[in-house]
Design goal:
Oligomer: single chain
Helix content: 40-55%
Shape: globular
Distance between the termini: 97 Å
Enzyme class: transferase
Subcellular location: Membrane
Membrane topology: Single-pass membrane protein
EC number: 2.4.1.17
Largest sheet: 7 strands, parallel
Radius of gyration: 29 Å
InterPro entries: UDP-glycosyltransferase, UDP_glucos_trans, UDP_glycos_trans_CS
Strand content: 5-15%
């Protein structure tokens, strides 16, 4: 049971939130926080792609809807599979710079820039280039940033948060905190490469874009980042790795999860009648399951046809289904997962969906397709709540084997229930935690005291390279001194022994 702790009252503030990524699932994390802040009396203004369909008090949309296509149920499996982890990040950098340019050029955003508005807080997103940090300079307001995944390497440096590559794996690598030498080598190099790529590939471009729209006096992004008072991160130590963190790094994993939703009557009846249980299958809000190759779809269909359980599948335009499979283009996922008859969740391993699965205590079968999904599924496999199903090896046999494990091995359900308890057991809910720290930053007009001195340190100081160099020099000098000392002592002893031999020979009537 989560103990709900009331946050203290804060004078109503004006909050500007700017979102450049057009992914609906990512916005869900922002939306729940922004609505909570509006409910507490703060005036919330949101620049984004998803204006509220049902407006609420204190919440104002500056809509850029339609300027970019929504990333909702319109991506193919092949697109994800073809990227590769490093290429995916680099493409994301490039696309995000283009997105930023389009949003900044939007008439509604231009109107905001030219306005006389005043704000007490700016909220942005750390996903790729944070192109809206310049607004903190424009409106002279502190910054909070949200990360919708686990912490990304280029976010930690803003607040001096440690990201030691010996035991903190990069978010796009499928490593645990217990890495071999080769894994630590790859992890170290990739983490630094991504930080450098972020700076040289996108930040410098964003600097030009920011100065174009906000004026030539705007500091570079590398300086603006240091003014970040707080980072709210969509992770939690129970499902991700435990890691050291500065006070400005606050985990709010699962904040988007909202309880109390109701299932449509027909769907509830379908789940209620499933006496042998239900398998729920979804590849998330972005990927269309119908873009799976036909042979892989058929492998699932053939497997499902032999099961006593019912199957609820988020997929569209599919034929040849057995009688126990029901499909839909869209489903209320969390409400489905919370139904007591759901026995297994087949997922691509996205951060939001797997958190919902954990919260509901449902064992998972993970089919990671890219980005952080491999890391997410590996985490759950090591905790005994999931089985990984390799995409390339999908067949009737592998699907059947994976389902048999999570359906009939009681340890998976037992572990899932235990992990759910751990994930839920907090002094405050994730949302209350986020609201408290957001209002904390508002109360003190920023919170640089939550950062460490590492924010201002050059890399050589942070890595103690200067200290190591001095110690190494001292060790070398000591070694040289020791060598010279021994050499002198050896020469003295050698000369003394020689003189003794000469003297002895003279006594015996011999010459040297």
């Amino acid at each position: 049971m989560v103990a709900r702790v009331l946050v203290q009252d804060t004078k109503a503030a004006k909050i500007l939130t700017l979102i450049s990524f057009n992914g609906k699932s990512h916005f869900s994390m922002f939306e729940v926080l922004l609505k909570a802040l509006a409910k507490r009396g703060h005036q919330v203004t949101v620049v984004g792609f998803f204006p509220l369909k049902d407006p609420i008090p204190n919440y104002t949309d500056i809509s850029v809807e339609g300027s970019l296509p929504e990333v909702v149920n319109n991506m193919t499996v092949d697109f994800f599979r073809g990227l590769g982890p490093f290429n995916a990040v680099m493409i994301l950098y490039k696309l995000h710079v283009e997105m930023c340019s389009i949003v900044m050029d939007h008439p509604n955003v231009q109107k905001l820039i030219r306005s006389d508005e005043k704000f007490d807080l700016i909220i942005t997103q750390i996903f790729s280039p944070d192109c809206f940090l310049g607004f903190s300079h424009r409106f002279n307001a502190p910054v909070i940033s949200l990360t919708t995944s686990v912490a990304v390497p280029w976010g930690n440096d803003r607040i001096g948060n440690p990201d030691h590559p010996a035991y903190i794996p990069n978010c796009i690598l499928p490593y645990t905190q217990y890495m071999s030498f080769s894994q630590r080598l790859v992890n170290t190099v990739l983490t630094q490469v991504l930080k450098l790529a972020q700076y040289y590939y996108s930040d410098l471009t964003i600097d030009e874009l920011t100065r174009k729209h906000l004026g030539p006096d705007v500091p570079p992004l590398s300086e603006l980042k240091k003014n970040t008072s707080l980072i709210l991160v969509n992770s939690h130590f129970t499902i991700n790795i435990p890691r050291p963190a500065v006070p400005a790094f606050v985990e709010v994993g699962g904040m988007h999860i909202k309880s109390g939703g109701k299932l449509p009557d027909d769907l509830k009846a379908y789940l209620d009648e499933a006496k042998d249980g239900v398998i729920y299958f979804s590849l998330g809000s972005m990927i269309r399951s119908e873009t799976l190759p036909r042979e892989k779809v058929q492998a699932f269909i053939d497997t499902f046809a032999k099961l006593p359980q019912k199957v609820l599948w988020k997929i569209d335009n599919i034929t040849g289904l057995p009688h126990n499979v029901r499909t839909s283009k869209w489903l209320p996922q969390y409400e489905v997962l919370c139904h007591p008859n759901v026995r297994a969740f087949i997922t691509h391993g996205g951060q939001f969906g797997t958190q919902e699965g954990v919260h509901a205590g449902v064992p998972m079968i993970g089919i990671p397709l890219g980005f952080d999904q491999v890391l997410n599924i590996m985490n759950y496999v090591t905790k005994g709540v999931a089985v990984e199903l390799d995409y390339e090896s999908i067949s009737e046999e592998t699907v059947s084997n994976a389902l048999s494990k999570v359906l009939y091995d009681p340890s998976y359900r037992r572990n899932a229930k235990q992990l759910s308890e751990l994930f839920r057991d907090r002094p405050q809910s994730a949302l209350d935690t986020a609201v408290y720290w957001t209002e904390y930053v508002i109360r003190y007009r920023g919170a640089p005291h939550l950062q460490t001195a590492a924010v201002e340190m050059p890399l050589y100081q942070y890595l103690l390279l200067d200290v190591i160099a001095v110690l190494l020099l001292c060790a070398i000098l000591f070694g040289v001194a020791l060598y010279c000392g021994f050499k002198i002592i050896f020469k003295i002893i050698s000369d003394t022994l020689r003189q003794m031999r000469v003297a002895k020979n003279k006594v015996n009537g011999k010459e040297e």
